[in-house]
Design goal:
mainly beta, globular
């Protein structure tokens, strides 16, 4: 699956690519007046979900967005939820493929809440609302739990949400940890994007709250976790201002492999940063 827009105008269109034949199938219509977010396969590969700022029946621009589910076998789509409010991301499937997670902006400016949308068409539900001054982000830890980071009016915090009951287990917060984003991994691990003195220094947190640094064997100042790997390791980007970025694999035992490096551009001046306080 890939997206394409005319002249890079950001009005994207979703396509399916058959890697055997090279054939393309358009999933969404050509358009120049609205935006599309996401495009995720279900875990079993039988469905695709995205969010579009349009009426899927008429193609006309609509306020808010519609969460669309495309059935691969029947080559049909249906809208699971429409909203007139703003949003900023697409949806993600739960590991069992039965539910979608979506961030919606509701209430005061900056307030973001989490909603779960069943793919069987039963009503969607708001599962996390921490008030009109708090933005929350999250992703599925498993079918019953969502890893969450909350930008609070006082402290930013990391937690685990049991979304069916609404129970929250707070794991860490400022000033001990400055969380920016969470990426669930294998065996209940959560990679947290955390900042220390303007440097990205991620940590791994388990469900008991125990945390340890994500090993940075690349020797670069910042390490950005991108995705978990099946063996318990991580894919990450290592970078600073002193050299081109690197794509690295962090092994479960703490070792690391450099998978690729951005080409060095002679015209670009790489300068090692200095701390100023």
């Amino acid at each position: 699956m890939f997206v394409r827009s005319r002249d890079l105008n950001e009005h994207d269109r979703l396509f399916l690519l058959d890697r055997r034949t090279g054939g393309e199938t358009a999933l969404t219509r050509f358009q120049t007046d609205h935006y599309l977010f996401g495009g995720r396969f279900s875990p079993d590969g039988t469905a695709i979900a995205w969010v579009a700022v349009c009426d899927e029946d008429t193609g006309a621009v609509a306020p808010g967005g519609g969460v669309c589910l495309y059935d691969m076998a029947g080559q049909s789509r249906r809208v699971l939820l429409r909203t007139e409010g703003p949003f900023e991301t697409g949806v993600t499937f739960s590991p069992d493929g039965r539910n979608l997670l979506w961030r919606r902006m509701l209430g005061s400016a900056g307030a973001i809440r989490l909603w779960v949308i069943p793919v069987d068409g039963t009503p969607a539900a708001e599962v996390l609302n921490l008030g009109d001054k708090v933005a929350v982000r999250g992703d599925w830890l498993d079918d019953d739990r969502i890893a969450v980071v909350a930008d609070g009016s006082v402290n930013d915090r990391v937690s685990i949400l049991y979304w069916r009951s609404g129970t929250l287990d707070w794991l860490a917060e400022e000033p001990g940890l400055n969380p920016q984003e969470v990426i669930p991994g294998a065996q209940g691990q959560i990679a947290v994007h955390a900042c220390t003195d303007a440097t990205l220094t991620p940590v791994l947190i388990d469900t008991s709250g125990f945390r340890r640094p994500l090993p940075n064997r690349a020797g670069r100042r910042s390490l950005l976790p991108l995705a978990p790997l099946p063996d318990g390791g991580w894919l990450a980007e290592a970078y600073d201002a002193a050299a081109p970025h690197q794509l690295v694999r962090i092994l479960p035992g703490g070792g690391g492999l450099t998978l690729a490096s951005a080409p060095d551009t002679p015209a670009r001046r790489h300068t090692r940063p200095q701390e100023i306080r």
